[in-house]
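Notes on consecutive records. When two proteins share a document, each keeps its own sequence and its own token line. Never mix them. Below: protein one.
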Amino acid sequence: MAARGPAGPDPKLSDEQPARLKARLELGPAAAGYREDQRWTLARIVALIATMFPIRVAITTA
């Protein structure tokens, strides 16, 4: 039997989108408008993904 890879749904992001997202995350929360608290939260990452790409993900997906 040949391995088919990990089980589960297909990735929401294309092959190049995770690198773009990582670069934006490395700029820090202040660069995304979160000046009061310098921590990335799942909710903030979901919001960032929604502004960067034409997809919506749930917090459980992020």
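Protein two starts on the next line and is unrelated to protein one.
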Amino acid sequence: MSEQTIFEQIKLALANAPRNQYMAELHLQMIKFADELKHITSKEFCEGVGLKQSLGTEFSKMRNLTSRLKAAGLDTNRI
């Protein structure tokens, strides 16, 4: 899947998230696509999805957390 397609899927998921679940959805999407986006910077992620640069830290955190979650049995394809 291309980066642009992933960014569009994330944008759609965020647009459809309930107002009080926006950040939870953002974190889930970051975890879901962490492996496919491991080669990009947090700045590139934020630009691609149209987020404030300050959320780049969240992208880095979720990418680091994903390896631990997968080691514990998480299947990111089920998110």
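For the record: The chain has one domain: 3-73.
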